[in-house]
Amino acid sequence: MDWSKAKNILIITFLILNIFMLGMTIFINSNMSLSDDYIKYSKNYLASRNIEIKADIPYIPGYTRKVLYSTRDFDIDALCRTVFGKEIILPKNGNTNDIVVGEEMINISEDEIHIKDKIPEGEIWFSDKKAFENGLIKYLKNIGFDKSELLPEKLSESESLKEMVFYTKYKSFRVYDQKITAQLNNEGFLILSVPNKIIKKDNGKGKGEVISIYQILVMGGLPSDIVIENVDIGYRRVSEGDLYGVPVWRIQLDDGTIMFYNGFTGEKLDW
Amino acid sequence: MNKDKRERLKTKILILLIITCVIQLGIHWNIQTQRLPFHFVSKIFAGNGRSTNLDVESIKKTYFVPETVMVSISSSYWRLDERDSQFHKIWDDIRDNYLPIIIRQKPDKVLPKEQWDAITGARYIRIDFDTTWPSNVINWLIESKSNDAGSFEGIKSIVIAPQLDVNEAVNTLFVYDGNQIYQYQVNIKRDYLPKRYYSNLMDEVSFSNRPSFRLLTSVSSFVSDKDIFVALNAGKGSAFSRINAVIPKEIVLNRNNLENYSIQENILLDEKESLSANYIDSSGYILFTDTENLYRLYNDGVLEYKYLPSVSSVLGNVSAAFKQAVTFIEQRRHLIGEANIYLKDIKKENNYYIMEFDYKFEGIPIYFVKDKDSMISSPIIIKANSDRILECQWVIRHFSKYDKPVYYNINFPDLLNNQIAFSYPEILKNKDNIFERIEPGYIFEQNSPKSVVLVPNWIISTNSKNYIIPLLRKEG
Prior knowledge:
The complex is a heterodimer. Chain A is of the alpha+beta class.
């Protein structure tokens, strides 16, 4: 057999096949992406209704999957060590949802864990924003939240209270119903609520098409005369108790209003 | 040397082109996600095979099984059940050889149902079904090529009376559909069971050490609308195993089974990814739904299904509706373990059929009650038309043998004199009782523990109450 000739034939065949498939990919992608005309139309329509977009529109892949919410495995001993400074012997058949030691407590519910803890460095945290942030991240790590899964959302402060909010993330997207809220008062008490759920994987293999934000803005029934300050996409469950989360668009207005839209259906979410 | 270099370069280019070709294939299989096509290839082999490979045609006959085959000489009866080889031999012969013929041919005689007693007063073999099987379902089940659904509306009982015709090549059959009796003369062909098999069976069975039965109404003052047979000479008794009844571990309602998709794979099958799911630990159920389908699985192993759109279509052919029901069950049949499922009743409503299915274990009925004060009902109730399943309520349990079978006393006089008279005298006293069943069987409750061992009992049902009386071991 003449291998040299055979290779030539194979090279030509695979080259043609590659060029054909590349052409097909380009053709399909150009058909699938939202046309520039639609974006222009949307912007004109929004302008006509005095809706101003000050936000960057994020790029998202056209298709994505639902995600599965699992129950987060908390190490109760580690939790107790962090909050109470010691392990607590829990009754075998008793209620382990509420653990109270003095003024400190851990409350475990279906969706969240609430912690009240007197922080020894509370005064330092209260007076130094950076110390609060670093200390809180370390504290969260001790109870099972790695820094890499946290996305800071906001930090607010008053004379008697400092509050920091994080979202957990999945594949770089915020999970909007998995929020960590930490409040520190001037007496050094940390009130923390952390989510009891975690997204470990996508739900199966079937993908759904994510609706473009321009379609949401046009069809979503936004009021006139508003300024959109931020638009981003993440995950959320449509209803309380849902096992799966869907991609959702979050639209934030300059007056603080936040709206969520189901990325698969375009439906506005109330919950 | 130059040629060598050129060949090596060509090889590298060829490998590169093959790799890019594979990547591009992956892109095409999975638009927007640049990956290899193994995902697609694995999908082909990843199916659990339950729904995609289900061949209803091959298993449909397992539903078409008689409740009993009775051999009769005068007023004495001997019962053959699914554990007897003769049961299967006779039923296979009737189903495969006689039914395809009689469903096509006109009956030789049509008799009023009042003559049933006269027909069944001699030596014969009687096959009884739990329900009247509609003739066009039978047509589908026995794969009759004929479009004619037969002269009779359905089959409730069949009587084989070999002694009625002296010709060894002709056998006589009676079909009872609940309204009339249809008599057929069937020519026995070479691959049929010989006629003498039926003739000799009566002597063979009557001389064995089997319990012999009589009609309840002929040996007691008990009233019944049905033919209830009770053992008068219990012989060596009857063997029963104890059986385990548990909620299948794959569908026990907990987070773990939901998060590893065990419940979805076993209940939703191919729809496992398309339906949304809602579960709150304290609710006691998981809800799967989309715009058309709603599945609800409770923590007591009850599965509810509902087709959500309102149904305006006509009910269609009963055999197509039965096929829909059988398909729904068979796709999830692996959950029930060693038990069998059989049709208990089929009724026509305005635009759907209601089909009730019960469990049996080695031919012995496993009855179901919602709670201990409820009447016996069916653990599987399906509403379907010819197009689809409309509703289903299924109490799912996994049944397996707990221990070896032992012999129990099924002698009716012993039951009457030693157990009923002492423990339940009201059965004897209440003259308004109309008996629906007196027979050995198993029974389980909807709210029984997740795992329970079922023991054989006398199941006595009247028109107002169930009595569950333990079967006693056969002495000696």
